[in-house]
Specification:
- With 262 residues, this protein is an alpha+beta fold.
- Helices cover 29% and strands 19% of the residues.
- It folds into two domains: 130 residues, Ribonuclease H-like superfamily/Ribonuclease H (Nucleotidyltransferase, domain 5); 68 residues, no CATH class.
- It has six helices and eleven strands.
- The strands form four sheets. A four-stranded antiparallel sheet has the order 5-8-9-10, with no helix packed on it.
- A hairpin with a 6-residue loop joins β2 and β3.
- The radius of gyration is 35 Å and the shape is elongated.
- The termini are far apart.
Length: 262
């Protein structure tokens, strides 16, 4: 089971392709929710559905027909959401995971040992048994069909923190490129950064959001990166009191000049 930190189109496609590989085949029809990344328009009255052009191309590539959930109709919407609710309640609720990969490993084990092995309340069989007997043969083999997913090509400007932002995560680039525009290729689990046609950084793609990957080599040469800054303490200047001016006279001289005492 795959998990994603967002609902971007590429994540939908990657999830579908992962499902085709996991089940060992492609169905004739795929029921989808009306996500904006997939369905541009779905009129609840006329039932007119306008697919995103890339979804249309994806469906043609794999050879299945898209069926969009009818808005406000539980018969189709519920069928699509019921499995999501089951995963949330049974597999995730009340659990904490240190990393994204730890969560995916847990879900993979949960699918194999619990979800696919339990006796279903309606069919009286385990999902694995029913799938192997009645459904697996109905799937079309994906053999010979290459992945549809292609790398995303993005443009980014390098920030003052020596990094670019992709999908809410930060990836470092050489500090000399601060302020420069770079081309970013995202695909096959990696983030590649090019400047003037030359590859300047490669990172493993992060899952989720708010992550940061830093290559120390990208910061080499920045003042303060190799040695800790030295705090310089400046001693306060001690100013000696000024000597009395030679022009000042004793008070007795003034007293004699005015003829009397104070």
């Amino acid at each position: 089971m795959r998990t994603y930190g967002h609902e971007r189109q590429d994540s939908w496609f990657d999830g579908l392709e992962s499902a085709f590989r996991a089940f060992g085949g492609v169905p004739r029809e795929v029921l989808l929710d009306n996500a904006k990344a997939l369905i541009l328009h779905h009129d609840p009255a006329s039932r007119e559905v306008v697919l995103h052009p890339r979804l249309h191309a994806f469906a043609r590539h794999w050879g299945f027909r898209v069926r969009a959930c009818a808005p406000y109709r539980a018969r189709t919407k519920g069928k699509d959401e019921r499995g999501v609710g089951y995963v949330k309640r049974n597999a995730i609720a009340g659990r904490h995971f240190a990393t994204w990969s730890a969560m995916e490993a847990h879900l993979e084990a949960w699918t194999r040992e619990i979800a696919d092995a339990r006796v279903h309340g309606t069919t009286g069989e385990t999902p694995r048994e029913r799938f192997e007997r009645d459904e697996a043969a109905a799937l079309r083999s994906p053999a010979g069909i290459p992945p549809f997913m292609t790398a995303r090509d993005l443009l980014r400007r390098v920030g003052a923190d020596c990094a670019i932002e992709v999908d809410g995560n930060a990836y470092s680039v050489p500090w000399r490129l601060i302020g420069e525009r770079v081309r970013v290729t995202v695909g096959s689990g990696s983030v590649r950064v090019l400047h003037a046609g030359h590859e300047v950084a490669v990172h493993a793609e992060l899952k989720g959001r708010h992550g940061r990957v830093t290559d120390d080599a990208h910061l080499a040469g920045i003042a303060g990166t190799k040695t800790r800054p030295v705090r310089i303490m400046i001693e306060p200047e001690i100013i000696a009191p000024e000597a009395p001016s030679a022009l000042l006279r004793p008070l007795a001289d003034y007293e004699a000049a005015i003829g009397g005492g104070f």
